């Protein structure tokens, strides 16, 4: 297997609903990635595209739509969906194609336009698509699943409402320093605690909304391109995990979960992260920057435990003691996280990897983690989808 | 039990009241012992032969394993004639079946909710359909 490096990245800043088409957002990100890599379009040998699920035929063939904008060259274009870990799948395919020697240089991208209004069922057929049941009969929008787990955590480990609010305070401080962030207002703990409940115990400022955004990543094993690149970042491992039997988490879209655990919580992310540690020979203790999926304040806490940065039930203390801040041994979400960005489904995993790469390349200005050498991006997607990417410089 | 004549579940094969009690419709794998809900949501133990899956009804009562109170209306296709927001959602544990199931909480003071309290399976009226039937979903309420 060959070493694979990130040489070009591009982000279209995160924003709310837009009338513009997703391919235009994608083109902005891809154009920036090409410029960053100082690369001609014709040098791209494969495109691994995250699909845009609300985009009809165009969205499901997002790679072809993107390719035609820059000029069709006949290369392999694969369109992939793994819920909110879609970007992890596209990065992993690009990495594997290059590491195996099939191609030298590949593009992974995702672009998403926030649906107008709420996320809801994507079909009307409950026999074919069990997700329809939770919408028609369950009364179960996504944050309810997080609230149910959060309440269990509060009962089990003593997590407080102040802990949940503190996550937002920290994320809003970092988000205010990130030009790509959608939400740049800084919040005090009182302001967060005064925000309305969406689903008790989670408040409005403690859950992330859906957003519009695009991200593109160019990876290569071409030695000449690597030598010319500005601070190329090595991908030490990029993995995906699915859920394991006996995982006690109540998973988004499901109506049931086991009551006797036989696997870790969020087992898909446990699996992805452990695969990455094994493949890279890098462990949590070596990591300087972690971008985790803080879909809610609960996620921020539980992911520190799921990925092995502390023992179960200890994340609250890490947070309270300032051990997750920029300047501590481990900086968690110096980007401002999903809390400051919102979810742009097929783009977000790639965006997380780019935020990590930017830290390693020293490009983060006011939110820069000084001396960062090792970074990890961790994703989370509904119904057992997850990806981990570990990078070094 | 209230009069269940002329009531219909919005989606079939989830909730049953033919025995005179409202019970959730599950399936049990006699090879790996796992219970499924919905009953077609197979989640076999890896290596299971997957033989001998039979339809079963869950116990009527369980314990509240977690809950939340939802302050915003659930978007369509969810619909109820009467406003139900804010509404409780419970995760109810059926001990013998080793499964926890989500459901709207009805007929219960939301301020009284507490992890561990006993809950029973019931139904919640949603709306009247074109055939003048009362369309319902499954729900949970505190056992008094």
What does this structure look like?
The complex is a heterodimer of chains A (393) and B (144). By secondary structure, chain A is α/β, with parallel strands linked by helices. Chain A has 2 domains: 5-118 and 212-234, 3-Layer(aba) Sandwich (Peroxisomal Thiolase, Chain A, domain 1), CATH 3.40.47.10; 141-207 and 235-392, Peroxisomal Thiolase, Chain A, domain 1. Helices cover 36% and strands 18% of the residues of chain A. Chain A has helices spanning 22-37, 56-60, 62-70, 86-99, 131-138, 142-157, 161-175, 189-193, 223-228, 267-280, 297-306, 315-320, 337-341, 348-360; strands at 5-15, 47-50, 77-80, 105-112, 197-200, 202-203, 212-220, 233-241, 256-258, 289-291, 331-332, 374-378, 386-392. In chain A, strand 12 (374-378) and strand 13 form a beta hairpin. In chain A, helix 1 (22-37) crosses helix 3 (62-70) and helix 4 packs across helix 14 (348-360). Chain A is globular and about 55 Å long. Chain B is globular, with a radius of gyration of 16 Å. Chain B has one domain (7-142). Chain B starts with 6 loop residues before the first strand and ends with a strand. In chain B, strands 6-7-8-10-9 form a 5-stranded mixed β-barrel. Chain B has 144 residues and is mainly beta. In chain B, a hairpin with a 5-residue loop joins strand 3 (23-29) and strand 4. At the A-B interface, helix 5, helix 6, strand 5 and strand 9 of A face strand 6, strand 7 and strand 8 of B.
Widest beta sheet: strand line-up of chain A: 3-2-4-7-1-8-13-12-10-11
Total domains of chain A, how many? 2
Helix content of chain A: 25-40%
Biggest sheet statistics of chain A: 10 strands, mixed
In CATH, the topology of the largest domain in chain A is named: Peroxisomal Thiolase, Chain A, domain 1
Overall mean confidence score, pLDDT of chain B = 96
Q: Could you state the order of secondary-structure elements of chain B as H and E?
A: EEEEEEEEEE
Strand order in the largest sheet of chain B: 6-7-8-10-9
**Number of DSSP strands of chain B?**
10
Oligomerization: heterodimer
């Amino acid at each position: 297997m060959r070493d694979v490096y990130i040489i070009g990245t591009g982000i279209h800043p995160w924003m709310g609903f837009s009338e513009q088409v997703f391919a235009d957002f994608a083109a902005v990100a891809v154009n920036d990635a090409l410029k960053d890599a100082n690369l001609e379009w014709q040098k791209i040998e494969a495109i691994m595209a995250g699909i845009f699920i609300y985009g009809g035929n165009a969205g499901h063939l997002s790679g072809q739509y993107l390719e035609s904008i820059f000029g069709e060259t006949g290369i392999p274009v694969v369109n992939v969906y793994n819920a909110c870990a879609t970007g992890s799948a596209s990065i992993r395919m690009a990495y594997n194609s290059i590491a195996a020697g099939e191609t030298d240089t590949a593009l992974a991208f995702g672009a998403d336009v926030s649906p107008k209004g709420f996320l809801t069922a994507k079909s009307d057929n409950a026999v074919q698509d069990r997700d329809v049941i939770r919408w028609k009969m369950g009364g179960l929008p996504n944050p309810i699943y997080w609230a149910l787990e959060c309440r269990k955590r509060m009962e089990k480990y003593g997590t407080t409402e102040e802990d949940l609010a503190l996550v937002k305070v920290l994320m809003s401080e970092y988000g205010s320093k990130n030009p790509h962030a959608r939400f740049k207002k800084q919040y005090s703990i009182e302001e967060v605690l005064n925000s309305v409940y969406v689903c008790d115990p989670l408040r409005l400022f403690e859950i992330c909304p859906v957003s519009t955004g695009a991200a593109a990543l160019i990876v290569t094993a071409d030695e000449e391109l690597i030598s010319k690149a500005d601070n190329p970042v090595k991908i030490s491992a990029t993995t995906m995990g699915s859920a394991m039997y006996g995982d006690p988490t109540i998973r988004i879209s499901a109506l049931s979960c086991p009551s006797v655990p036989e696997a870790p919580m969020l087992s898909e992310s446990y699996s992805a992260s452990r695969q990455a540690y094994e493949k890279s020979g890098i462990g949590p203790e070596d990591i300087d920057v972690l971008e985790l999926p803080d879909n809610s304040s609960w996620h921020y806490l539980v992911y520190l435990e799921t990925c092995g940065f502390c023992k179960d039930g200890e994340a609250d203390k890490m947070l309270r003691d300032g051990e997750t801040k920029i300047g501590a041994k481990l900086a968690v979400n110096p980007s401002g996280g999903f809390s400051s960005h919102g979810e742009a489904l097929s783009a977000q995993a790639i965006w997380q990897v780019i935020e990590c790469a930017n830290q390693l390349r020293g490009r983060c200005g006011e939110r820069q983690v000084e001396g960062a050498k090792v970074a990890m991006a961790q994703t989370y997607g509904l119904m057992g989808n997850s990806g981990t990417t570990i990078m070094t410089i | 039990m209230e009069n269940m004549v002329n009531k219909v579940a919005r989606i079939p094969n989830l909730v049953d009241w033919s025995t005179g009690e409202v019970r959730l419709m599950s399936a049990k794998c006699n090879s790996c012992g796992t219970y499924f809900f919905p009953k077609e949501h197979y989640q076999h133990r890896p290596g299971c032969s997957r033989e001998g899956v039979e339809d079963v009804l869950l116990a009527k009562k369980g314990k509240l394993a977690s809950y939340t109170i939802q302050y915003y209306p659930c978007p369509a296709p969810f619909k109820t004639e009467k406003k139900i927001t804010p509404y409780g959602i419970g995760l109810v544990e059926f001990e013998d079946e080793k499964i926890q199931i989500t459901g709207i909480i009805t007929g219960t003071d939301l301020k009284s909710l507490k992890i561990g309290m006993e809950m029973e399976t019931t139904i919640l009226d949603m709306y009247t359909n074109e055939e003048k039937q009362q369309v319902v979903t499954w729900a949970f309420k505190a056992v008094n």
